[in-house]
# Entry
Amino acid sequence: MVITAIQGELESLADPGHAAILQRFFKTGPGEYGEGDRFRGLRVPALRKLAKKYGDLPLTATVSLLQSAFHEDRLLALLILIQSYYSGDAALRGEIHRLYLEHRGLVNNWDLVDASAPHLLGHYLRDRPKDLLTRLAASRVLWERRMAIIATLDFIKQGEFDETLRVAGLLLGDPEDLIHKAVGWMLREVGKREVAVAEGFLQPHYRRMPRTMLRYAIERFPEARRLAYLKGTVA
# Structure
């Protein structure tokens, strides 16, 4: 009954006009990466407000919400899981991490990955073996590969860059633009903190990196340095 109530509240906030915009923005047409996804037309601040309201939702109910056909319902479920994760003890965090992996097929667009992977994947693995990221980076599923690199944002924020660079190396030849953007973004985050570390990775690899990945990675560089990378004149 609580899920019915939550979804009723979500529906009451629906905006069909904005939903149509989101359907296009998140590429839900035939053959596109978000094919078949459905939107209610809610904005993220409204979902964050609802996540606080329903922050004590039981895990079983939250997983039921995650199984919704509506994109915003799944994002709300992930936001609730993140809140529960950080407020929980070690056992609860482990259970939420397990549930996240078990239902990762429902985390099926870039915003869902980006909102959840640093917390429910990266934070959990912070002091644990990182073999899981290697397996995800080798997945045939686009969203799992994006999880692998975006999860490392948690490590970056701790001043730890090795895992980001390792996973970035695994994804250099990825064919998907959404992976190029994600890897470039994480390299940019490294560079914002330690530009020498980012350049230590870029210099031997930048000539074979996808152009989008490179552009994202060097976006914050001084103009002359950025142009040198784009022209291929960095030693």
Summary: Residues 81 and 139 are 24 Å apart (CA to CA). The longest helix spans residues 71-87. The chain has a mean pLDDT of 97. The chain has 15 helices and no strands.
